Structure formats: structure tokens, C-alpha cells
Amino acid sequence: MSNIEQEISQLENQISELRKRLTNLKQEQAENTCPFKVKDVVVDNYGHRGVVSRIRPGYSKGEGRPVVRLFVKSGELGKRTNDYYSWKPTGEVFGGEAYL
Asked: Which domains, from first to last, does the chain contain?
């Protein structure tokens, strides 16, 4: 390898490590700024209930967005998820393990 190729390779490795670090920091910030925690039961403006299954980094200023798995009509936790901003806490915490 030439010196230029070695330098390019080193820079690409540094960039890759910095991207990983940035992703981890954004995720940590999202979890700290989100008003919900994983397994919180929430309800939207239409009365749809769900459970926070994970938290994503937001689009601006890193505020976390909850990803909510919705309950189906039978009362079980469904497979569909939403990440709306209009969720409100119910004060409940989901006790099940399925789909989270």
C-alpha cells in the first residue's frame, strides 16, 4: 500500500469509530430526554393504548421519540408500532415480555 492508501484507510477507520460513538451518544440522549421509558403504557388522542417498546433519537435537538406497540381489540399486544408525538402517560407499566 502506498502512503496515500494507508492514510485513507486510517481516516476511514477513524470516521467509522466516530460514527458509532455519535450514534451511541444520540441514543443515550434520546433515552434521557424522552418523557417515557420502555414498558410505559401510553394512550394517544384517539384513545388507542400501547406500550413503549423502544426509544429513538428525535429529528431536532435529540429529544427522544417513543416507538409504541399498540394493543389490539382482544387486549393483547399487537405487532404494529407507531412513533407519534401525541402520546400521554397512563401511569401504568406493562408487565408482559412479548414483543418488547
From this structure: 3-93 (2.30.30)
